[in-house]
Design goal:
Radius of gyration: 21 Å
CATH topology of one domain: Na+/H+ antiporter like fold
Number of helices: 14
Strand order of the largest sheet: 1-4
CATH superfamily of one domain: Na+/H+ antiporter like domain
Largest sheet: 2 strands, parallel
Distance between the termini: 40 Å
Number of strands: 4
Order of helices and strands: EHHEEHHHHHHHHHEHHH
Helix content: 55-70%
CATH architecture of one domain: Up-down Bundle
Oligomer: single chain
Length: about 425
Amino acid sequence: MRRTRTGRLFVPPSPGESTRLGELLRRETVGGALLIGAAVLALAWSNSPWRGAYTALGAITVGPAALHLDLPLAAWASDGLLAIFFFVAGLELKREFVAGDLRDPARAVLPVAAAVGGMAVPAGLYLLVTLGDPAAVPGWAVPTATDIAFALAVLAVIGRGLPTALRTFLLTLAVVDDLIAITIIAVVYTEHLAVGPLLLALVPIALFGVLVQRRVRSWWLLLPLAVVAWALVHASGVHATVAGVLLGFTVPVIRRAPGDGPGLAEHFEHRWRPLSAGVAVPVFAFFAAGVSVADAGGWGALGDAVTLGVLVGLVAGKTVGVAGATWLVSRFTRAELDASLCWYDVLGLALLGGIGFTVSLLIGELAFGPGTPADDHVKTGVVAASVVATLLATLVLRLAARRRPVRARGDATDPAAGTESP
């Protein structure tokens, strides 16, 4: 007997989510363009005759030594500025699971499954490629992250006609991906834990939470508490960006009817996302992405186990993990693709998941130490994977545009571009 299929995959977002997601997609796209520009500048400078000045700039030390916060500028970018990025990520995570479409188990199952597949398969392939090189093992988590800003910037160029449902899926997938990455950073890459500072950090975090629960928005009250919490988490040995996530989780999220004004989480996200996407992430990318090809071993670095592991993990692992998990959800829930899509769309989007820039570079630094040969090989692998994933995704999505069902061309207004799909 033929099975009756039930449900659809990649359905368009609910009406209450559409406007918010459209604005978010536009901001992430602009931030991704700045990120790409910062990375290109770093690569050009670090491979120019003036690369010594680039290295010296990142090594400039600033900060109070008495508080053990005399850090190089590169460390301030990864430990300090990225805390803003993770604060916004914490807000978005809570928003999606409390008031967004992820509160609905039927909608949540696909992005959660795809994110888990997009973590497990790349990590497994990395370990398989680096088998026999114990020194490479700490980098297993590098290819598990997807850079949503970078991916959406690429998608804005190569996927203008892509239906809305698939764009929002990429964004939702990245939200779950961020949660997994945050957990890995906090649990796996904390080598020396100082319990005292960590417990003390709970005090300013709790005070911050009490104030925001009472709808307090005064920066002169909240910002000092956030800075103290960040400094104590940094002193504890846990990566300081985790403080940003914890602070984001304390902000209340309320399900609001259409037409209601923004809540406190939306207020903070509106204020801090431009700083995160326009300053924090590009500055981090500028200091993290600069790797000298000559210093990393020339083109021979592409044959290094770490480089190959990252490259294979991001490009092949993300593609197999995300697309494979999507197929399994379709197979076992008897759901079929939305009428606006074909499986080439899914494959192209999975390839875009192989752009794992910001968090991948951060994990590489945590795994091997900034400036080490292995860290340079991570950077080489991440940059190469981002280029390869972009090129392959371009080819596949253009093929998908030709094969997409004709009735999909009037699908919906593209929230990222603000125009109807052609």
